[in-house]
Amino acid sequence: MTVQTNAASWHRQFHCALAILKKNIRLYYLKPPVLIFGILFPVFFFLAFKMGRPIAAEDVVPGMVAMALWFTASAVGPLVTPWERNARTYERLIASPVSIHSILAGDVMSGLIFGTCLSVVPVLIGSLLTDTVIESLPLLIAGIILGALNFATLGVLLASPPASAPSNIMLLSNLVRLPLLFVSGIFVPLEQMPAWARWAAPVSPLSYATVLIRTAYGHEAFFPVWLSLFMLVFFAMVFFWVSCVFHNMWRARAL
């Protein structure tokens, strides 16, 4: 009886997470801040780095895919929660009989799908307009999906402070995301970076996603593939757990 009750509870909470996912897709995916911070910002950022420099296409495309994934998957969480707090719908949501895990899982799935779908764009552009070759499609898919999951959980974690203005959360988000961008092998491969950056790279989840994506395009892996896969799963679990702790603290205060 207890097993059936637990199964029914999990099934209900899963459907609640899917309902939140559908709500986020319908209301927030096409919001200008999401498109700007998730798509235009990384594109122009990378072009500013690439223009006028003799960088080979096989080095540009993996970095572009990783950067698009980094910004798009982590852009949804920091924008959705402040909007809902500002509209006073967040308090109603946390007062409903829905666990905080389901609410955050819905936000994570939103970032996961958003980042995964949009990261396909630079992959197609690289395949159609350059001579880059994907040597391991399963590894590329694993890097994109696990990276999107990881960055989506990070975005939900960054949205945990009780701010009602998206600009405040985006400021915090960029204070975290931009420094990690320069120590994660996006612009310069990790093996060519200075020693201090190679020491900092292991604490960045973006490093492991970048290594998987670059390896899928035929580059030598800086970290073992198994370690990159494990660390992405580990970071995602830690980020989600810490997000639940922080959001529960805010939920207790709000109620």
User: Helical amount among residues, as a percent range?
Assistant: over 70%
Indicate how many domains the architecture comprises: 1
Cα-based radius of gyration, to the nearest Å: 19 Å
Percentage of β-strand residues: under 5%
Unreliable stretches, pLDDT < 50, 5 or more residues? none
Question: What kind of sheet is the major sheet?
Answer: none
> Could you state the order of secondary-structure elements as H and E?
HHHHHHHHHHH
- Cα distance, first to last residue? 32 Å
Number of strands: 0
Q: Which labels suit this protein?
A:
single chain; 11 helices; 76% helix; 0% strand
Q: Could you give a short description of this structure?
A:
This protein has 255 residues and is an all-alpha fold.
Describe this structure in words.
The protein is an all-alpha fold. It has one domain (17-254). It has helices spanning 2-28, 32-50, 57-73, 77-86, 90-95, 100-129, 137-158, 166-181, 195-200, 205-216, 225-254. It is globular and about 55 Å long. It starts with a helix and ends with a helix. 43% of the residues are buried.
Give a topology summary:
Blueprint: H1 2-28, H2 32-50, H3 57-73, H4 77-86, H5 90-95, H6 100-129, H7 137-158, H8 166-181, H9 195-200, H10 205-216, H11 225-254
Helix pairs in contact: 1-6, 2-3, 3-6, 3-7, 3-10, 4-8, 6-7, 6-11, 7-10, 7-11, 10-11
